[in-house]
Structure formats: structure tokens, C-alpha cells
Write a structure and sequence with these properties.
- With 199 residues, the chain is mainly beta.
- The protein has three helices and eleven strands.
- Strands 1, 4, 5, 8, 9 and 10 form a six-stranded mixed β-sheet that branches.
- The longest helix has 5 residues.
- The protein is globular.
Length: 199
């Protein structure tokens, strides 16, 4: 009796370049969410940045589409151990959105339609490290992957790239988001395997 099906080679790790520790290579784009998938009409969608002083900066979908966009090719890494290489996105850099925002904050809380939150150091959203992404592989971002727009912070585990993004609150002190309150790491660097508190 064969225990392993003929032709099965297990999960691919040989990508020609290293993966973060404990990760395997996938060509799929698995869908993992903390709750139901929100459906946000574009005419109702908005993105806000709220400073620690309560000052709000707001963009409608039309206004977001009017900003300079960038094409991004990057690897992504999920805390559930899959990695996908050379993914293609299009979106607006957080550098653009935060360029006229006066703040003394060191931390940010990403806020999603549906109630999801995740915390990040503000410096991890700047200097070409993060985008509000609205296209994937040349097509509008599908709802199950966070459309119409999601935060994309590819140097951290993917739970930090909040789907269905609706805003960012800037904070003087760090505060845990949804998964961080349940024991996930506050930072989430895949190369240091920061999956859970204490890693």
C-alpha cells in the first residue's frame, strides 16, 4: 500500500533564493480572514489618517485614484508558513499619503472595514516600505484579498498588511491590534520568525 501518492513532491522550497525560516513556497494565493468579507462600494469607500491630536486627513476613492501610483513586485510571507514570490501590485505609497501630515507619532494602528486592526511602527510605513494597494496582477484587487484596497507592508508577515483598509490612526504609544491581543508578535518579521509573543 502506497502511503504517498505517486508524483507527490511535498511543499516546494527550492525557489532559487532563500525563504524566511519555516516558510514553504506556494503558487496559489490562499485566502485567510479573521471574519466575513466586507463588500465596500467604491462611492462609499474612504481612507483616513488621524493624527494623535485628532486631525483627520481624508481621501475618497476618486481622490485616491488621482494620486501618483506605483507598481510593486515583491515577495509576501504569511504567518501560516506559506510564501509567494514576485507578486505584482499597484497602489499609492504611504509616503505620498503621509507627506502633508504633521505628527510626532512613532506608531500606527491600521483600521479595516469589518473591524480588524493591526499595529505597526510608523517607520515601517515610510521610505517606500508600504502602500495602499488596489490592484493585484493587473486587475482590481478581489474582495477576498482585501479589495477594493488593502495595506501592503511586504517586509512583515501578511497579517500586518490589513485587508479592506479604511484608515490609519497615528499614536504616540504602541497598542496591540486584533491578532496581537491574541498572542501574535507585535512586530512580525518573517526573517526572525516573529510569529508569536516571545519569538
Amino acid at each position: 500500500m502506497n502511503i504517498i501518492t505517486r508524483g507527490f513532491r511535498g511543499r516546494r522550497r527550492d525557489s532559487g533564493r532563500p525563504l524566511p525560516p519555516g516558510q514553504y513556497l506556494t503558487h496559489d494565493f490562499p485566502v485567510l480572514s479573521a471574519g466575513p468579507t466586507p463588500r465596500i462600494p467604491l462611492d462609499a469607500w474612504e481612507f483616513t489618517v488621524t493624527t494623535e491630536q485628532g486631525e483627520r486627513h481624508r481621501w475618497s476613492w476618486t481622490e485616491l485614484m488621482g494620486l501618483a501610483a506605483e507598481s510593486i513586485t515583491t515577495d509576501i510571507h504569511c504567518v501560516t508558513r506559506w510564501s509567494k514570490l514576485d507578486t505584482d501590485w499597484r497602489g499609492v505609497s504611504l509616503d505620498t499619503l503621509l507627506s502633508n501630515v504633521a505628527t510626532e507619532a512613532d506608531f500606527a494602528m491600521a483600521l479595516s472595514y469589518g473591524g480588524y486592526t493591526t499595529n505597526l511602527p510608523l517607520e515601517d510605513l515610510l521610505d517606500g516600505k508600504a502602500w495602499i494597494a488596489y490592484q493585484y496582477n493587473g486587475e482590481d484587487l478581489a474582495s477576498e484579498h482585501g479589495g477594493p484596497a488593502r495595506l501592503l507592508v511586504p517586509h512583515l508577515y501578511l497579517w500586518k498588511s490589513a485587508k479592506w483598509i479604511r484608515g490609519i490612526d497615528l499614536m504616540l504609544q504602541d497598542s496591540p491590534g486584533f491578532w496581537e491581543q491574541l498572542g501574535y508578535h507585535d512586530y512580525g518579521d518573517p526573517w526572525r520568525e516573529q510569529r508569536y509573543q516571545g519569538d
